[in-house]
Design goal:
Blueprint: E1 5-7, E2 13-15, E3 19-20, H1 26-39, E4 43-45, H2 53-62, E5 71-76, H3 83-97, E6 102-107, H4 117-129, E7 133-139, H5 143-152, E8 155-161, H6 169-177, E9 181-185, H7 197-206, H8 210-219, E10 224-226, H9 233-240, H10 249-256
Parallel strand pairs: 3-4, 4-5, 5-6, 6-7, 7-8, 8-9, 9-10
Antiparallel strand pairs: 1-2
Helix pairs in contact: 1-2, 1-9, 2-3, 3-4, 5-6, 7-8
The chain binds NADP nicotinamide-adenine-dinucleotide phosphate.
């Protein structure tokens, strides 16, 4: 299995370890994204709602990398789910980011209170056809809603909370059957993996840390992409240092056993989860 890259059927390559930028504002977003790109991350996750697209875009420009070396994801605010706002707000995002297109545009949360799902997805599909985004997808969609999305548009991913304490098998099943990939957000359970005794024990067996073990566990499972966030340069670097060791099947199974339905992000008005 290729632990570095996921390939879509059309040949599109998605770097499987990306950098998350939620709660990185202003200069912290710029500096952290730049450290991430210098470290080797080639997949950056931002959103209209993070109010840091301009800083993320500036870091990409200042990194010295060619634009086509970096996979950039942004997300539509749910309030921009109506067709006209899908187009106008994506234009604003591209302007903020300073790019002519993104690699992936997601709908951040289900937004049927704003516009019917087919309307949003068809508007996103038109942006793909017009070259403003290479791929489209959704975020925070439970499995049945995700299956509906596939009926209306060529989505490639569902970005959802996933870490050793929260499994998302029904969503993974839908994605696998359609050639898509899971994007795991909060993959470190917002830092809680660092306190887990099983992860810490396995980490000691490899001379690494529990966050590295967690990310490696994700990369050794087919179809999973992870986007850890850190504003700390040493952690940004160590979270990417996961390609020099391998977990055994027994260690993988021990980590699988940590699943306990522990959801950290469940806002009012969010979807009913599987
Ligand atoms: N689609 C959505 O609705 C959605 C929701 C949430 C997140 N996301 C995306 O997913 C990304 C990651 O999720 P997240 O930020 O919620 O959580 P996360 O990546 O699981 O965890 C980030 C937290 O863990 C800490 N941390 C990072 N590396 C660590 C390490 N090696 N050891 C110990 N602690 C460590 C960070 O602290 P420091 O920063 O202080 O190092 C931060 O507090 C976000 O940035 C965003 O891009 C998307």
């Amino acid at each position: 299995m290729d632990v570095t890259t996921f390939y879509l059927d059309d040949g599109t390559a998605i770097p499987r370890l990306g950098f998350g930028t939620f709660q990185l504002d202003g200069d912290a977003a710029y500096r952290s994204t730049l450290v991430a790109l210098e470290t080797g991350y080639r997949h950056i996750d931002t959103a209209q709602g993070y109010a840091n697209e301009a800083e993320v875009g500036r870091a990409i420009a200042d990194s010295g990398l060619d634009r086509d070396e970096v996979f950039v994801t942004t997300k539509l605010k749910p309030s921009n789910a109506a067709a006209s706002a899908v187009r106008s707000s994506t234009g604003q995002s591209l302007e903020e980011l300073g790019v002519s297109h993104v690699e992936l545009l997601l709908l951040h949360w289900p937004a049927e209170h704003v516009a019917p799902l087919p309307e949003t997805l068809e508007a996103m599909t038109r942006l793909k056809e017009d070259g403003l985004t290479r791929q489209i997808g959704v975020s925070n969609f439970p499995s049945r809603m995700l299956a509906r999305a596939f009926e209306h548009a060529p989505v490639v991913t569902d970005q959802v909370e996933h870490h050793p304490f929260l499994g998302v098998e029904p969503i993974e099943q839908v994605l696998r059957s359609r050639g898509g990939f899971l994007t795991a957000y909060s993959p470190l359970a917002r830092g809680q993996v660092a306190e887990d005794p099983v992860l810490t024990e396995i980490a000691a067996e490899h001379g690494v840390g529990p966050a590295q073990v967690t990310l490696r566990w994700m990369l050794q499972r087919p179809g999973v992409v992870a986007i850890p966030k850190s504003g700390t340069p040493e952690r940004i670097r160590s979270n990417f240092d996961v390609f020099g060791f391998e977990l055994s099947p027994e260690q993988m199974a021990r980590i699988d056993g940590l699943e306990r339905g522990h959801r950290l992000i469940d806002p009012d008005g969010g979807p009913d989860w599987d």
